[in-house]
Design a protein that fits this description.
Chain lengths: 471, 471
């Protein structure tokens, strides 16, 4: 699948499922979360929060405006962002004394705020996060949810530690927390460690979570950075150690953007529309009554009865009794929205005390009302398991092991990500990247080790690298 | 209580209870929600959402940036805001073609977005809301949470209707929803209908929710506006009526700001610190173990046992076993944070299988472990009821019925809000306002009617008005 057709399909789904409106609002790169999309987004946020809370992260909220001199304090940092920052220069008709940036990311503000709240090792570790809008003045072509100017759903965590060792232990915890989050969301991923020449400004180690979309391009959905003391030194953020000496704080930052929501929708969709995992769907079941005027009352009553018992059982259910739409229109609408289960109740079902269950994967069966719970439960579990496995397999089938540099181009052009042994030399990484136009050497797998020989210099190495086209 | 001392005390509580940091961040009028404050804020948001969801409002999220020409479309609207809008003028080093406002409020953007999503009466009513940051370039002195430049917790609802009648029914629903929200939050209020000369720009009817703080000044915590067709006309937002004709949409907007959180804290606090209603507190119970080295293990075990059974019972509990603090320091810290209940467990309690319960209102009792649930439940209910009643009575005792204009000054200067019969003539309203320096005629009670005579012109009237100093 080509990028254009993938994005077009994605955009169509966002529109037809009423998830997100894009391209109409007169500020480029800004989308609108419609009610149904907002619920999906909330579900994603809920899972992120659950995992971060249980691992001891505390939620905070910092100002959106960052003064220019604060942002500039970390010179490496600002260099990477300068051309992408929106600046507030006026309040009313008054020119501001100092220009204010719309938060592009919060390393500087977080360091500034928390350095005064940490005096000694007793206050450490400190682990905070916020879920906020960040802004990038993107000069490239924008894409709904994927490359926007206002990222409305950016989860950014910051942790402060007393030593490099503690920070690196936290790196592992953050990595595992992200694994849990993306696993629960059903988004498959690879986790390359970025090469030194392609890291987040200010970071000493960067591991990203990348998912491979159906067009074979990778989409970065999360990242974990070990910042060392780079930010704490410029802000002189010191603390007293156990031995009474002072040192600068060791820091991590890690983020997940609304690309997570985008990839969720892109991976699972089919040609009809969105498909939502039962565990993610804000609404699991839609009941569509099928009636004529003469039997409307009876069938509505039966449909409502079913709705009530399903709600008592804890399902999120809607009963679509819109009189202005035909059952067929409703079927189509809810299919496009990706609701996992549709229950149809008509005269036949009423008479026999049965219901028709249709899954979003187009399995249809008529069952006794008495068997409803059991059937629903197994239908939902089956759907959840099958879908997760299918998407996981599909994504990993987009990775192809490559042994020779000369094979890279064909693999990439066939819509895949290339995986190969590679040593840690920058020259070798750059060489593969330059060997296929439009690709990036996205890094060394953070966990996987396979014995072999560097694809470029043939040196023995256990490192695995990835070459891909990127979003 | 004077304004300065009230705000100073409020600020001290925010700091000592670690709710909100203010005045340190280098952008004036921007505060930081610390973890504990964030939890209180979330609790407030949760209640707002619950009430709005159950009354059929759908949550959405619109872009934060509003282009200047969109904001200017409603001339009356912008006139009221022009001097208070922050403008983004640059992206990187590039001057933007059109300046972008940081959302001061969303009437224009909401009308623009939803006019295309409403084609006929079948799409109506449409009721949406969002919880977002809004920005005001305040030129007056700023106050933590109360008068800030970034209001981080602004709930704004917008509804669209097919007739004035429907919109006015919704006005009543919105009013009742707000009553429920503030009642659940335990914030007492009066609900004046703003006089015509002091309304939100673009509104035809405005009713506000104002609470009276201990210094006798009113703080507006919510507002409901009937916008009529003022916004739909400038955006040409039309829909097809049942009879096939077209008309402009009838609209409402209503908002609640983070002043709700501020008033919650201000009303209930005492000289020691915050006091949180059990139903609002993110943590209801703190357990403080009291031990020496020799009995630490046993007492910790007992404390943990109590924590577990309380958590199973659904209480939100923390066990403060910080080894670096004395029990006395912990008592003081959690008192200032306003946690409703403290449970102390020391050697005596352990030996007798008892616990000591101390409420934030300083009632202390020693009870059998077996009686824990019952005692806790009644302690929490009593606290909840007493506190709510106390705050309600205190607030209403700050309103004084006045019969003569010449009495207004004394009443206001004694730290009260004056209430009086007044007719609907603008001259009479202006007259009372001008009779005491620094006051506002905040309007006519939206519900209460009492037979009497206008305080100014002596005309017979059932209307009740309020004169107050305002935040």
């Amino acid at each position: 699948m080509e990028e254009e057709s993938l994005i077009e399909r994605f955009d169509k789904i966002l529109t037809s499922a009423k998830i997100y409106e894009y391209g109409k609002y007169p500020v480029k790169g800004c989308g609108i979360w419609l009610p149904y999309g907002f619920e999906i987004r909330q579900r994603v946020i809920e899972i992120i929060r659950e995992v971060l809370y249980k691992t001891g992260h505390k939620e905070v909220l910092l100002p959106m405006l960052i003064p220019k001199d604060m942002l500039e304090k970390e010179a490496k940092h600002i260099a990477g962002f300068l051309e992408q920052v929106y600046w507030v220069t006026k309040g009313g008709t008054t020119k501001l004394d100092i220009e204010l940036a719309l938060r592009p990311t919060s390393e500087t503000a977080m360091t500034y705020v928390f350095k005064d709240r940490i005096s000694s090792y007793r206050d450490l570790p400190l682990k905070v996060f916020q879920i906020v809008s960040i802004f990038r003045y993107e000069t490239e072509a924008t894409r709904p949810m994927i490359r926007v100017r206002e990222v409305t759903t950016f989860k950014e965590a910051f942790t402060f530690h007393e030593s490099r060792e503690d920070a690196l232990l936290q790196f592992e915890e953050a990595y595992n927390a992200y694994k849990e989050i993306f696993d629960r969301l059903g988004i498959p991923y690879i986790t390359p460690e970025r090469p030194a020449w392609d890291r987040f400004p200010g970071a000493e180690i960067t591991v990203t979570f990348d998912t491979i979309l159906p067009d074979g391009k990778t989409l970065q959905i999360g990242s974990v950075h070990y910042l060392g003391q780079s930010f704490s030194k410029v802000f002189d953020a010191k603390f007293m150690k156990k031995n009474g000496e002072y040192d600068w704080l060791y820091m991590l930052s890690y983020g997940i953007s609304e690309r997570a929501v985008a990839s969720l929708i892109i991976h699972y969709a089919d040609d009809t529309g969105a498909i939502l995992l039962p565990s993610i769907a804000p609404i699991q079941i839609v009941i569509v009554p099928i009636y004529y005027e003469y039997n409307k009352a009876e069938i509505s009553k039966y449909a409502n009865e079913i709705k009530e018992i399903l709600e008592i059982a804890g399902y999120k259910v809607i009963l679509d009794d819109d009189p202005d739409k035909t059952p067929g229109e409703k079927f189509y609408e809810w299919e496009r929205a990706g609701i996992p289960i549709r229950i149809e109740v008509g005269p036949k079902e009423l008479k026999e005390r049965k219901v028709t269950i249709a899954t979003r994967l187009r399995n249809k069966s008529v069952i006794e009302l008495d068997a409803l719970f059991k059937s629903l439960k197994s239908a939902l579990i089956e759907m959840e398991t099958k879908l997760r496995e299918k998407i996981r397999n599909e994504m990993f089938s987009r990775i192809e092991r490559v042994k020779k540099v000369s094979d890279l181009e064909n693999i990439i052009n066939s819509g895949k990500v290339a995986m190969f042994n590679i040593c840690s030399n920058e020259e070798c990484g750059m060489h593969v990247e330059e060997s296929v136009k439009g690709t990036r050497f996205i890094g060394y797998d953070a966990k996987q080790r396979i014995k072999g020989f560097c694809i470029v210099c043939s040196k023995e190495t256990e490192k695995i690298g990835y070459l891909a086209k990127k979003y």
